[in-house]
Amino acid sequence: MEISFVKNNKKQTGIALIALLVLVGIVLFILPADYFDNGTPKCVSVILFDINCYGCGMTRGIMHLIHFEFATAWEFNKLSFIVFPLLVYMILWEIWRRFLVDEKKDSEIK
User: Fold this and answer.
1) CA 64 to CA 35: how far, in whole Å?
2) What integer best gives the mean pLDDT of the chain?
3) Could you tell me what percentage of the chain is helix, strand and coil, using 3-state DSSP and rounding each to the nearest 5?
């Protein structure tokens, strides 16, 4: 009985996490592409040393990728073209693992 409770709790937590990730993606798509373009930098390397790190502009670059503005995304951070597909892949992998693989294991046990 206890194992079933832990398994159900883990599955519910996974569903909540995936729902949150999908909701964040929808909100970022609804927001305008230049929503994060203005403002002061939050990066420690820029604040302390006035040097851009590899992550500087990643949020803005991914935001422009979401809105299919590839040239602007390239200007903000070239690595966003690698990071964004990896993020999408990781989210889809987690959805597949939690729903399809766990469903097969549950049906085999019964």
Assistant:
1) 10
2) 83
3) 75, 0, 25
Domain limits, the chain: 2-109
pTM: 0.71
- Which 3-state string (H, E, C) describes 18-59? HHHHHHHHHHHHHCCCCCCCCCCCCCHHHHHHCCCCCCCCHH
Give the C-alpha separation, 84 to 63, whole Å: 9
| pLDDT score of 101 more than 90 | no
User: Which residues contact residue 59 at a Cβ distance below 8 angstroms, ignoring those fewer than 6 apart?
Assistant: 36
Q: 81: which residues sit within 8 A by CB, 6+ positions away?
A: 61, 65, 73, 74
CA–CA gap between residue 49 and residue 66 (Å, rounded): 30
What are phi and psi for residue 100, nearest 5 degrees?
A: -85, -45
| Euclidean distance between CA atoms 105 and 89, whole angstroms | 23
